Amino acid sequence: MFFRLSLSALALVIAGFATPSWAGQKDKIFFESVEGSWRGPGEIVAGKYKGTKFVCKFKGAPSAEHAVGVAMDGHCRVGIFSQKMSAFIGGKRGKYSGRFQDGAKGDGLDIISGQINGNKIVVGLNRKKLDGAMVAHLEEPNVMNVTISVKVRERLIPVIGMTLSRERRVGASNAQDHLR
Q1: DSSP string across 138-174
Q2: What domains can be seen in the chain, in order of their start residue?
Q3: Digit-coded pLDDT (tens) for 135-178
Q4: Other CB atoms closer than 10 Å to residue 18's CB: what's the count?
């Protein structure tokens, strides 16, 4: 169950909140900068499945329902086992919400808070009594580091780490240049 929940959390490499209205444009630029195809390795670094390595592949596209947001679809693979992944984040005027898989009411997680700051996003995660956070940082336009942590006795403990690389498209422009 923890492994399945942890992999569900990997589906979201994008999400967030902002406050001032001009930040809405900065948020939109951030979401656009993470659209496209991403692939990379990760590892569970704490808990029952510590040391488990996996590889994920995601495709991000603009949110069909909101002016600002993204929908992510893909899968993560551990050995011969593969798990479909999906995530959605969207909203307007700095008020965003989202879910991994089918959300906390199903087998996934809800996105409950967050903030975009330049090329980094931090979101709050929740599933019943489990609280946590995800940080996605675009180290450069084509490399994103993702860390997922869970709250244990008021401390955030990292449990998953991964590095995703953008699958290159010839002639594609990158909105990430506007974030710097």
Answers
A1: EEETTEEEEEEEEEETTEEEEEEEEEEEEPP-TT---
A2: 2-167 (2.40.128.20)
A3: 989 989 899 999 999 999 989 999 999 999 998 765 545 554 44
A4: 24
What separation in angstroms does the CA of 133 have from each of 127, 172, 174?
A: 11, 31, 27
In the block, residue with structure tokens 């974030």: 179
Query: Distance between CA atoms of 36 and 170, rounded to whole angstroms?
Result: 12
DSSP 108: S
Q: How far apart are CA 91 and CA 98, in angstroms?
A: 9
The answer, yes or no, to whether residue 15 has pLDDT greater than 60, is no
Residue type, 31: F
Looking up tokens 């710097």 gives 180
Distance separating alpha carbons of residues 178 and 95, to the nearest angstrom: 22
Per-residue tokens: 65: 């329902």
Q: What is the pLDDT of residues 49-104, one digit of tens each?
A: 999 999 999 998 887 766 777 888 999 999 999 999 988 877 666 667 788 888 89
Give the C-alpha separation, 57 to 169, whole Å. Answer: 15
